[in-house]
Automatic annotation (TrEMBL):
Record domain YrdC-like: where: 14-201
SUPFAM superfamilies per UniProt: YrdC/RibB
UniProt-listed InterPro entries: DHBP_synth_RibB-like_a/b_dom, Sua5-like_dom, SUA5_domain
Name assigned to this protein: Threonylcarbamoyl-AMP synthase
Gene Ontology MF annotations: double-stranded RNA binding
Amino acid sequence: MAKILKIYPENPQENLIAEVVKTLNNGGLIIYPSDTVYALGCNIFDIRAMEKLAQIKKIKLEKAQFSIICNDLSHLSEFTRPIDTSTFRYLKNNVPGPFTFILEANKSLPLAYKGNKTVGIRVPDHSIPQMIVAKLGHPIASTSIKDDDEVIEYSTDPELIAEKYDHLVDIVIDSGYGDNVASTIVDLTGSEPEIIRQGKGEI
């Protein structure tokens, strides 16, 4: 049964963030707020947690394209191939924000991402995921709970989210109503940035 933690984005309670981090370190799954929709997250280095995440999304882990949630760009070199100055400047100008950037992956990706040629990097403009990643010490794997076919009420209301995912996750962070517009996805693997999906935010 999922535990609901009410955490306020203006001043996240450190003891509650510590509880979330402990859950992630123990292989648990969380639902957390972002600057777009509520999202599912887990420890990027825990293969079993990653498999659970894939099961919830009804896909095989090797076919999953889970984003990597960072609190800044300092983790880029851990997961991506070296990028040129103009690409880095482009990223720096647009993070934090409601964008997922597709970059070329390197060979140091966590086990669950092995074989992926590209990876989606995201730095949400929201204090709670930023604080979770900072306290955890490394990024988390993430996928939105938004239904791609329709906008449904449960995806914005933390109480309804908790009802739907009650036996699937360990913690639901209630930070008030979320948005129902997903992030804008920008492919940076070519010579020019290419918008793959227009979501929230203007790049």
